[in-house]
């Protein structure tokens, strides 16, 4: 795997985690996400790049 692609995925994962963690529980529920799902959602997003 290309190091640039790896870094891009890592950066996307980190950004997604930060943004979702900043939401309150109600906002996460509106999105259909629980706090325990944040890591998985971020990983899925990064892997889709």
From TrEMBL:
Residues 3-38 form the YjiS-like domain. It comes from the Bacteria. This is YjiS-like domain-containing protein. It comes from Devosia lucknowensis.
């Amino acid at each position: 795997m290309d190091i640039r692609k790896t870094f891009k995925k890592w950066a996307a994962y980190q950004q997604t985690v930060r943004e979702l963690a900043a939401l309150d529980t109600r906002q996460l529920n509106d999105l259909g996400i629980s706090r325990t799902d944040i890591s998985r959602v971020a990983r899925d997003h990064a892997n889709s790049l």
